Amino acid sequence: MPTENQASICRWADDTFGPVADPVALVDRAMMEMQELREAVEASDLAEIGKESADVMILLYRLAEQFDQNLNEQTDAKMVINRGRVWRAKGDGTGSHI
Questions:
Q1: This model's pTM is above 0.90
Q2: Torsion of Cα atoms, 36 then 42 then 43 then 47, to 10°
Q3: What element of type H or E holds 46?
Q4: Largest CB tally within 10 Å, which of 50, 63, 66, 89?
Q5: d(CA 60, CA 27)
Q6: How many CA atoms lie within 13 A of 79 on its CB side?
């Protein structure tokens, strides 16, 4: 199985679905996929958790591509910022910066 990346996923999506007419449609679809991911998590369905997580990621790659952004590079850059912040843990595995 080949290793995918943002460029290969976006080429496949463009070939399969056509060009993105409105990037907001990608956000709306990602939100639908996030709801499906939530349902999979609530059901502890490991196979679906993986698949739905991947669906969200595919849409985020495609969204980033619409704005000439590389999601992996943006994630690395954001982690530099995050690692430099002071955080307050909420006790549920999430938190917010101070």
A1: yes
A2: 60
A3: helix 46-66
A4: 63
A5: 8
A6: 6
